[in-house]
Amino acid sequence: MAEAPTTATSPVVKSADRTLAILELLTVHQDGLTLVDIHRLLGIPKSSTYSLLETMVGRGFLEQDPDSRRFRVGIRLWQAGQSYLAAGDLEKAALPYMEQLRDELNETVQLATLDGTDNVYVGKVDPDQQLLLASRVGARLPAYATGIGKALLTQLDDAEIERRFAAVAFTRYTPNTVGSLAELVSVVDDFRRRGYATDTSEYTPGVCCVAAAIPRLRNGQAAAISVSVPEVRWTDDLMAHATEAVQATARKISERMGYEDTGARSADD
């Protein structure tokens, strides 16, 4: 993982950038990494890596196992995350409506927010089914490859999508995955007109999804809700029912949370 470059248009404070790179790395490697691992993966000089790690441990953002010497995220980072969630209270407000939607369709319902070019799952309720979707709260996936991700992108205008995804290498996880920026803009534009987004085995083979954006919240957060269904249970009738129900649920959550408007604009505004 290379360090972010410093440019005239995007200045980077090296120590801050390195600190954030370490935190991002350790959120992915939840079993922890040693100093040598972090030095090797990020390419930061070992002396600088040591100093940054010691500082973060001292401040409680990281902790180190005394036996394995592995560093993991610490309590202060958890507290910071809780503060973020508390600010919007999105999960708490959405949960009753997610449960109602789950009970109505008996399928997996998920809630996500947009972070750069990824959708981050912040809520999930499972159905009473033997065949379940293997996903988890806290996971992040490329927004171009998921239904809920493309629903989130409908809240941005085309120029903002092009800016965010300009340097993204579009990986085809399945033959159905969006393969280019031009295709993504076209697909999102279509979903924006429809008022909902779909995903037919684009990231996970055999899984279909219908999703709807939650109209822009007062705190500027981009959010969306989805229903995911194994392809073996996906029928035209279920899709029609799920499409109507997920849009209605998104409106209910937005009314519960409050919103500014439903126009597309940058989530950075």
Describe what you observe in this structure:
- By secondary structure, the chain is an alpha+beta fold.
- The protein folds into 2 domains: 14-79, Arc Repressor Mutant, subunit A (Orthogonal Bundle); 89-257, GAF domain (Beta-Lactamase, 2-Layer Sandwich).
- It is 43% helix and 17% strand.
- It contains 9 helices and 8 strands.
- The protein has helices at 14-28, 35-42, 46-58, 75-88, 90-105, 147-153, 158-165, 181-194, 236-257; strands spanning 62-64, 71-73, 108-115, 118-125, 140-142, 197-200, 207-214, 223-230.
- The strands form 2 sheets. Strands 5-4-3-8-7-6 form a 6-stranded antiparallel β-sheet.
- α2 (35-42) crosses α3 (46-58), α5 packs antiparallel against α9 (236-257) and α7 runs antiparallel to α8 (181-194).
- The longest helix has 22 residues, at 236-257.
- The two termini are 29 Å apart.
- The model is unreliable at 1-10 and 260-269 (pLDDT under 50).
Count every helix, treating DSSP H or I runs of 4 or more residues as helices.
Answer: 9
Main structural class: alpha+beta
- Strand fraction: 15-25%
> How many strand segments?
8
Residue share in helices?
Answer: 40-55%
Q: Which consecutive residue ranges, at least 5 long each, have pLDDT under 50?
A: 1-10, 260-269
Which whole number gives the mean pLDDT? 85
Shape: globular
**What is the CATH architecture descriptor of the largest domain?**
2-Layer Sandwich
- CATH class category of the largest domain: Alpha Beta
The major pleated sheet works out as: 6 strands, antiparallel
Terminal CA distance reads 29 Å
Strand order of the largest sheet: 5-4-3-8-7-6
Order of helices and strands: HHHEEHHEEEHHHEEEH
CATH homologous superfamily descriptor of the largest domain: GAF domain
The CATH topology of the largest domain is given as: Beta-Lactamase
Our Rg estimate from Cα atoms comes to: 20 Å
Domains (count): 2
